Amino acid sequence: AQKVTQAQTEISVVEKEDVTLDCVYETRDTTYYLFWYKQPPSGELVFLIRRNSFDEQNEISGRYSWNFQKSTSSFNFTITASQVVDSAVYFCALSERGYSTLTFGKGTMLLVSP
Amino acid sequence: GAVVSQHPSWVICKSGTSVKIECRSLDFQATTMFWYRQFPKQSLMLMATSNEGSKATYEQGVEKDKFLINHASLTLSTLTVTSAHPEDSSFYICSAPRAESSGANVLTFGAGSRLTVL
Q: Best label site of A63, B7, B75, B103, fewest CB within 10 Å?
């Protein structure tokens, strides 16, 4: 069975601080996909990134970066120089073998104060 | 890019009434759509998989007669909460997969529908 654990329930930072959101996953498959979604107060889920299990390259997109480590089954997400607009709930999710259904972690609420 | 439209975005109804939520893929066809439910400050839980032209597949613990799903066309799936009760109040989110050239399916989510049952 697959499982996604986001141990941090809530994180509070001050603007311009860097913050890392942790994600640990469990799966028996060798082929899988990992995702991060952002859910602002409006409720709509915003896709941030997808990474397949064969691609362990870290990725940077503007202030966002992702660190995928299969050895520790982790897919952590870092926001550099956080901004108030980054305040949202962030979900890590797993999809096995390209199946469309996602297993979500419980989410981490990020609060960025001015 | 792929867009999924969900309607209504919020609805308030009286206990005992039925409420229908629509999910449309606007610029792509979706033979499959997924319905998720999210309680306040909790994660998304998959309720069911909607299949065009056939019956929906429900996750364990989800009442089929309570949550009626119909996938009428390649761009429309509906979720009807029948005889709604206050405990059905929740945020319902639909999603549709879009195949990429890599072979992976990327889910596009609707904006969600917030149901409040009085």
A: B103
Residue of chain A whose Cα is closest to the Cα of B112:
A44
Whole-number Å distance between alpha carbons of A5 and A12:
19
The one-character DSSP state at A18 is -
Handedness of CA B60, B90, B84, B49 (dihedral sign): negative
Alpha-carbon Rg of chain B, whole angstroms?
Answer: 14
Interface probe for A, chosen from B5, B42, B43, B102 (most Cβ of A below 10 Å), is B43
- Closest CB to B104: pick one of A98, A104, A105: A98
* Strand ordering across the sheet containing B67-73: B4-7, B19-25, B76-81, B67-73
Residue B56 or B98, more confident: B56
Task: From B84, B90, B69, B65, select the one nearest B23 (Cα to Cα).
Answer: B69
Q: SS3 of A84, please?
A: helix
Choose among B75, B79, B98, B94: nearest CA to B24: B75
Q: pLDDT confidence of A37, banded at 50, 70, 90?
A: very high
Is the N-terminal amide bond of B8 cis, ω within 30° of 0?
yes
What average pLDDT score do residues B69-93 get?
Answer: 95
